[in-house]
Write a structure and sequence with these properties.
mainly beta; eight-stranded mixed beta sheet; six-stranded mixed beta sheet; binds CU-O-CU linkage; binds copper (II) ion
């Protein structure tokens, strides 16, 4: 079929679910307590790959099929989990404390979600069930990064060494298998990892039971409470360009509640959705103070009425319930959809935690340090009907030769030229980076007049809550988003990609190499 790149085409039609789906508004809200994922416990110490004398905690985390209830009044839902729940157990560690994790595939041998065998890497000759786990936000040697082609089948496992030489941050692990990553994550293969350090500990932020991990994602369920992943109307090509589930889960439950005291809480929020952007607010409740983002603390807290979190991004949010004694505060998405409820207790409490106005220095990387600027287009492939058939980074497919090859410790500026109608959350493995600015440009001229770059507005600085260390950045449609990166860490092959998993699976992902410094 003839294909052309036509990014300025009319906005695509959303794919309607072909099966009757569960309407979450028919469920009694706020009847399940918010589950808190268990903290993973290591089974002893083992030697690191590079030094037989250095012993670090060793964890074995099996991936299994489980049946568990996502709401009191629904029958159990089949899910694929790390451990025994989705999200899986939280890995907790300290900066500089390495860990070994054996990710073990103990899943069944057939998939319960619709694989599209036309997608690169998911051909019919590939085993149905394959997994490989990536720790998102981790500065890890390439052999432990969970490269999308390093998948393994049921009965096999992979043991990765994470040195954790990085600042305190909320990371998360998830499946990264080439061609079916969107399905494996949707099935439930994700969880958190918290790295702590003394800088953060000295701030006296809310901690212990006042620090709450919050994993949010959207799903569709069918009438039998089973996960439903929609397909396109073409049975030959089931891939859909985007998924927006009508049901939001918090730590794996639909519309849960959390009993809180009238005091400050710290919520470590992950958007684990395949494609949904969250815009969180509270009804008649406190505003947020955002104190951190993907790669740790901001320089200072940012007051927000609405906390926006793109797929893959994290937000470290303080909510102070002290003025809401006895209230029932609803956490909502996009102004209307309830996500969960906070039941604020009536008993007076003393809150000894603090949220200092200075959190952590975030030294700016100077543009003058950059030795190279790369201009990278985010594009979409459409068929003659204007239907999306895939996404591309700089017009290149996954299996084409590597084009991004920064030298270790060098600084580069990447100009992400988004000529599509969608915002794409772009993620680079292994590194942290800073956002320089975003600037509107003429995407049509750029594509049709030989990469003519015509700006349509002034450069806009990142929002204050985006001004810290990031590993995922929202590249808005029709904008050039500039990021500055120091490629610190390890030499080796990594990937960069869009974190909308439907895009990532269908070619919006590229390998990149960190090469030895010349
Ligand atoms: Cu969240 Cu390539 O990953
Ligand atoms: Cu990652
Ligand atoms: Cu995308």
């Amino acid at each position: 079929m003839a294909m052309m790149i036509m990014p300025q085409a009319v906005h695509r039609r959303p794919v309607p679910p072909a099966r009757p789906v569960l309407d979450p508004s028919t469920l009694t809200p706020f009847v399940d307590p918010l589950p808190i994922p268990l903290v993973a416990s290591p089974s002893g110490l083992r030697a690191t790959p590079s030094d037989a004398k250095q012993k670090v905690p060793y964890y074995r985390l099996p991936m299994r099929q489980v049946e568990s209830k996502v709401h009191r009044d629904l029958q159990p839902t089949r899910q694929w989990c790390v451990g025994s729940s989705a999200p899986g157990p939280t890995l907790e560690t300290r900066s500089g404390q390495g860990m070994l994790v054996e990710w073990a595939n103990e899943l069944p041998t057939s998939h319960f979600l619709p694989i599209d065998h036309h997608i690169h890497g998911a051909e019919a000759d590939k085993p149905n069930v394959r997994t490989v786990i990536h720790l998102h936000g981790s500065c890890v040697p390439a052999e432990g990064d969970g490269y999308p082609e390093n998948w393994f089948v049921p009965g096999k496992s992979a043991t990765y060494y994470y040195p954790n030489q990085q600042d305190a941050a909320l990371l998360w692990y998830h499946d990264h298998t080439l061609g079916i990553n969107r399905l494996n994550v949707y099935a439930g293969l994700l969880g958190l990892c918290i790295i702590r350090d003394p800088v953060e500990a000295n701030l006296n932020l809310p901690s212990g039971k006042y620090e709450v991990p919050l994993v949010l994602y959207d799903r569709f369920f069918d009438k039998d409470a089973q996960l439903y992943y929609p397909v396109s109307p073409d049975p030959e090509k089931p891939w859909i360009p985007e998924l927006f589930g009508n049901t939001i889960l918090a730590n794996g439950k639909i519309l849960p509640y959390l009993d809180v005291e009238p005091r400050k809480y710290r919520f470590r929020v992950l958007n684990g959705s395949n494609g949904r952007f969250f815009h969180l607010s509270t009804s008649n409740g406190p505003a947020f103070q955002q104190i951190g983002s993907d790669q740790g603390l901001l320089a200072s807290p940012v007051q927000l009425k609405i906390a926006s979190i793109a797929p893959g991004e994290r937000a470290d949010l303080i909510l102070d319930f002290s003025d809401h004694t006895g209230d029932q505060v609803i956490l909502k998405n996009d102004m209307l959809q309830p996500v969960m409820q906070f039941r604020v207790g009536k008993a007076k409490v003393t809150d000894e935690s603090s949220v200092p106005s200075t959190l952590r220095a975030v030294p700016k990387i100077a543009e003058s340090e950059a030795t190279r600027t790369r201009t990278l287009m985010l594009g979409e492939i459409e068929d003659l009907h204007g239907d999306s058939v895939g996404m591309l980074l700089n017009n290149a497919h996954w299996n084409m030769p590597v084009t991004e090859n920064p030298a270790l410790n060098s600084v580069e500026i990447w100009n992400l030229m988004n000529v599509t109608d969608d915002a794409h959350p772009i993620h680079l493995h292994m590194v942290r980076f800073q956002i320089l600015d975003r600037r509107r440009f003429d995407a049509f001229a750029y594509q049709n007049e030989n990469n003519l770059l015509r700006y349509r507005g002034a450069a806009v600085a990142p929002e204050p809550q985006e001004a810290g260390w990031k590993d995922t950045v929202r590249a808005d449609p029709g904008m050039v988003t500039r990021i500055i990166i120091r490629f610190e860490g390890y030499v080796g092959r990594y990937v960069w990609h869009c974190h909308i998993l439907e895009h990532e699976d269908n070619e919006m992902m590229r390998p990149y190499d960190v090469i030895a410094a010349r």
